Amino acid sequence: MLPARAQDTLALPGLRQRLRVLPADTSRVRALNQLCYGLHDVAPTRALPFGEQAVTLARRLNDQPGLLYALLYLSSCYANLSDGPHALQLQQQALTLAQRLRHADGIVRSYAGMGGIHHERGDTTSALRNYRLGLAHLHEPGVSVRTQLMLLGNLGGLSFYMGRTADGLLYTRRAMQLAHRYGDLSGESVYVGHLGTYYLRQERLDVAEGLLRKALALSEAARNPRVEASQLTMLATILLLRDQPDEAEELARRALALARRISFPERVLDAYDILAGINEVRQDYEQAYGWRQLYVTLNDTLNSKARLSTLSALQTRYETRAKEHQIRLLTQRAQLQQLRNRVLWAVVATLLLGLAGVGALSWKLRRSRQALARHHAALEQANADTRRLAASKDRLYSIVAHDLRGPVTSFVGVTELIDFYLRRGDEEGLRRLPEQVRQSAQHLNGLLDNLLNWAVTETGELAFEPAVLTLDALLREAVELHQSAAEARQITLTSAAPEGLAAWADAHMTRTVLRNLLGNALRFTPRGGSIRLSAVRATTPGEVLVQVTDTGSGMSPEQVTALLNPDHAPARHGHARSGTGLGWPLCQAFVQRQGGQLQLRSKPGLGTTVTFSLPLAQEPAPVPEQHIVTSA
């Protein structure tokens, strides 16, 4: 028997054929949901239109169960396209609906999905909280085996990631036993492979090899080529570590052929990497170089596709919002026409009544004019909103086209340097390249983070979730995150905050502000300099102040004025703070959203101090119960 996921994939062509003849009823909602779910992992960009159509149709038909799964599957698509905030918003809508319907399967799926998105974004605390909330409903009637497997498997992976080995083994084995009990060979193969990966990390290669061989046999029996390709590459890796290059090469070539046949580029990339390693062990450097070149080319292609997929998802959301505005405009125009018709009928009727109806007619006309004025104002507002959205989209594309070119050009330059150093046999030059690649990658990651956050603020979907934040822990966390970059530049990075001082603020927004301010300070502080993070209780009641002070090059008064002016981008000459032009506006937006203010003091050669205020957490500070707002 084929596993559920394999059956879903095989059924996709037939579903597309059925969709052409299905009427706009609940059966069409089910078909759209199946198409979205079947494609959300392998082709999320193609799955997105099916999910959006399912949500729209289910709402129009008031199909509550269909809407529940449409929201869940659409959220998975956006999560796979790295649009975490929107995916969380959809999951929260699904959770609210599932709780209203008392739908146990939908409740557990929502918690599991949100936990997965938080895990992907590195927020292990929120991920674990959501998974535990899902566990509380796991054994209620109506929870499907597929949903149970998803929650247990995700929880096992998170436990291993957090170093909770006993919990990781417990949940992974429970998932493996559940898949075995219900004949889900593909699922059983995945979880046996997870155990093998754990023992590989523990360097217990004999146990890891045995588990991966068992996982491979299960995936072959399940006839699931995607899982089989993954197991082949993992087993080849273990055999290479155990000094068995011949069998490792055989398995890697099998994985390569299979991954190419099913268009699975991630596993093709893994096979290239393993084959390059095997030839390096055999000291066949020419073959190793050839495989490595294939790896680099494909990896660059996959990274470009991932960025394009994320931008495509953003464009789809912009276009969907624009269509909603057009529908609203048409509806309002129809209402205006109906209103005019009613007014005309009222005039005719009043004239027939004669002079006795003159007063009533005058009163009705005044009411009609007021209604027309209100609707006209509403139309004007809708037009203004549409123009603002179009301007926001144009600005986003302009920033992407201009500022992403720099990091990408850096990567191209590195590849040219590799060729140059290889021709010259310059090993010292080659050893310097990883640091350049790492810096370019970190720069590119920061750019994309700011772009996505800016897109959320521009569309008005910024989720504000305040909580009690202990400032000494928050500042230590920021220091630890940037410590390696500071040490590489011989910069002293410290933090100080009174013990127990806390703010009532949104954790994600505050971390984003600190990341941007620290990133700027590190870029413009010379070697041997220092950066200090501090927090104090403000003289103004009910506020705390957070400061980032550096001994960098500083800025002239003209540059400070240009940076503080919201109508102009930061200066881009000399030692001015440069970037996408979004870092400082993001910091201002996030601080103001939390009720604070952002201030800047700087002088050339004397460094820069940035101060922002946050509301003080009252003592005692109760932690509010969060209404949980990422994949199936």
CATH architecture of the domain at 467-563 and 584-612: 2-Layer Sandwich
Radius of gyration: 29 Å
Task: Supply the helix-strand structural class.
Answer: alpha+beta
Largest sheet, order of strands side by side?
2-4-5-7-6
The parts where pLDDT drops under 50 for at least 5 residues are 1-7, 569-580, 620-632
Tell me the β content.
5-15%
Question: Mean pLDDT, as a whole number?
Answer: 82
Number of separate helices: 23
Spell the H/E element sequence: HHHHHHHHHHHHHHHHHHHEHEEHEEHHEE
GO molecular function, one term: phosphorelay sensor kinase activity
Protein name: histidine kinase
Domain Histidine kinase: 399-618
Transmembrane segments: 343-363
